[in-house]
Specification:
alpha+beta, ten-stranded antiparallel beta sheet, 16% helix
Length: 162
């Protein structure tokens, strides 16, 4: 009985040790993440997911995907720029994969803006612009002046953390 107790104690210790080593907490810097859907009149539904985190050295790392339902298109992108002002975040990056009927191409710069309007059933819906793209690289300050209209998301949640 004593051998079984020692064995179980050692097994629990090893599981705890491996679990603590395999989960790395996110950096404490500014971040934005979200997922959801949006349908504009006369258009197919768009589903999106993204995350962007500011690393301790100031670099931004993240990725996102936009899928237009019905197999119309899917655009995947890395995020390397994050600008936050209050509950609004502007993100930019580079398209890494495309499929279906889309004008976007691998290597293009892309950008979008989101607004976190709070949590709970009484909160105004979170908002997102359509994904914009350009074959010419642009810096984050240029995307910051973009006036693309915001759209209420239908489902999901966006979180912006300054």
């Amino acid at each position: 009985m004593k051998k079984i107790t020692v064995f179980l104690s050692a097994a629990i210790l090893l599981v705890t040790l491996f679990a603590s080593m395999s989960f790395t907490p996110l950096p404490p810097g500014p971040s934005a993440n979200g997922q959801g859907s949006l349908t504009r009149p006369g258009e197919l539904q768009r589903r999106f997911a993204f995350h962007a985190n500011t690393m301790p050295n100031g670099d931004v790392r993240g990725s996102g995907v936009l899928t237009i339902t019905g197999g119309e298109a899917q655009i995947k992108f890395d995020i390397n720029c994050l600008s936050i002002n209050g509950s609004t975040a502007i993100m930019a990056g580079v398209v890494t994969s495309v499929s279906g009927n889309t004008a976007f191409q691998v290597g293009w710069t892309c950008w979008f803006k989101v607004v976190d309007n709070g949590e709970g059933s009484n909160a105004t819906p979170d908002q997102i612009t359509l994904l914009s793209g350009n074959p010419v690289g642009l810096d984050c300050s240029i995307q910051a002046i973009s006036n693309n209209p915001l759209n209420d998301i239908e489902g999901g949640n966006i979180q912006v953390k300054p």
